[in-house]
């Protein structure tokens, strides 16, 4: 069985790692370069670096910071936020990222995913899906940092992203983001069961048990977490030890 991945996420605003609740109320957590290096050394399987206000502020992802982070990590590294063109993708990959995450721009121009996967390889294109549960019982795709309803069904969109050539999906529950009461297992199951490409679960991790839960109750490949690592509640090694105890196959920390 393929080893499950533990992925710390660094949400960056104004050059600092931040964390909020439901995509709002951001608190400063530290320096992204130092934190990325520490997580890489501590046994993270991958890292995700999101410039969370690049899209809403309509500016480019902070390329110089990406270069600094890429120099200090030894694990695969995904960068997202404000990436809206082939030029943006090339710039971020050239800066040292292994993959790029694309969300709002893909909703606006789905063919960007198709063109990018052909040009750079699908394994380097991560489709980010931010989903929110609506009263009709369906999950809607949200864009612009979780603020705008794209009026699209998230399950349909995940399938479409796979068809267009995305290599993997980074799935975030807007409802659970920063709340720390566990991943949205129903949403995660629905998306994982709808596609054949790897899915990373994000949004809601409040303790190590939540990570083991999403691995044992869904077929998700990776679990993304921020608060539990940033706030020193658990180390990556401790999470991996618990995963092994629960019968989840993970790489050594």
Automatic annotation (TrEMBL):
Q: What class of enzyme is it?
A: lyase
Q: Which reaction does it catalyse?
A: 5-[(5-phospho-1-deoxy-D-ribulos-1-ylimino)methylamino]-1-(5-phospho-beta-D-ribosyl)imidazole-4-carboxamide + L-glutamine = D-erythro-1-(imidazol-4-yl)glycerol 3-phosphate + 5-amino-1-(5-phospho-beta-D-ribosyl)imidazole-4-carboxamide + L-glutamate + H(+)
BP-aspect Gene Ontology terms: L-histidine biosynthetic process
Q: Keyword Ubl conjugation: yes or no? A: no
Per UniProt, what is one Pfam family of this protein?
His_biosynth
**Gene3D superfamilies attached here?**
Aldolase class I (3.20.20.70)
> What pathway is this protein a component of?
Amino-acid biosynthesis; L-histidine biosynthesis; L-histidine from 5-phospho-alpha-D-ribose 1-diphosphate: step 5/9
Q: Which GO terms describe its cellular component?
A: cytoplasm
Q: What is its main location?
A: cytoplasm
A GO molecular function term, named singly, is: lyase activity
Q: How does it assemble?
A: Heterodimer of HisH and HisF.
Mind telling me which NCBIfam families this protein's record contains? hisF
Q: What does this protein do?
A: IGPS catalyzes the conversion of PRFAR and glutamine to IGP, AICAR and glutamate. The HisF subunit catalyzes the cyclization activity that produces IGP and AICAR from PRFAR using the ammonia provided by the HisH subunit.
Name of this protein:
Imidazole glycerol phosphate synthase subunit HisF
Q: Which gene codes for it?
A: hisF
């Amino acid at each position: 069985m393929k080893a499950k991945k533990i992925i710390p996420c660094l949400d960056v605003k104004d050059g600092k790692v931040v964390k909020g609740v439901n995509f709002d109320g951001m608190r400063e957590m530290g320096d992204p370069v130092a934190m990325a290096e520490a997580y890489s050394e501590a046994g993270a399987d991958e890292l995700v670096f999101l410039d969370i206000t690049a899209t809403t502020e309509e500016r480019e992802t902070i390329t110089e910071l990406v270069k600094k982070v890429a120099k200090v990590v030894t694990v695969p590294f995904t960068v997202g936020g404000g990436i809206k063109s082939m030029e943006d993708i090339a710039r971020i990959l050239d800066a040292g990222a292994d993959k790029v995450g694309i969300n709002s721009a893909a909703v606006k121009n789905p063919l960007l995913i198709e063109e990018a996967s052909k040009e750079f390889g699908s394994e380097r294109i991560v489709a980010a899906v931010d989903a929110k549960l609506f009263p009709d019982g369906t999950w809607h795709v949200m864009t612009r940092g979780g603020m705008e309803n794209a009026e699209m069904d998230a399950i349909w969109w995940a399938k479409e992203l796979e068809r267009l050539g995305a290599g993997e999906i980074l799935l975030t529950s807007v409802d659970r983001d920063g709340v720390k009461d566990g991943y949205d297992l129903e949403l995660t199951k629905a998306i994982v069961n709808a596609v054949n490409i790897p899915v990373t679960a994000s949004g809601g991790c409040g303790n190590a048990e939540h990570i083991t839960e999403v691995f044992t109750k869904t077929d998700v490949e990776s679990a993304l977490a921020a608060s539990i690592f940033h706030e020193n509640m658990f180390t990556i090694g401790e999470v991996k030890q618990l995963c092994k105890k629960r019968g989840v196959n993970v790489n050594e920390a």
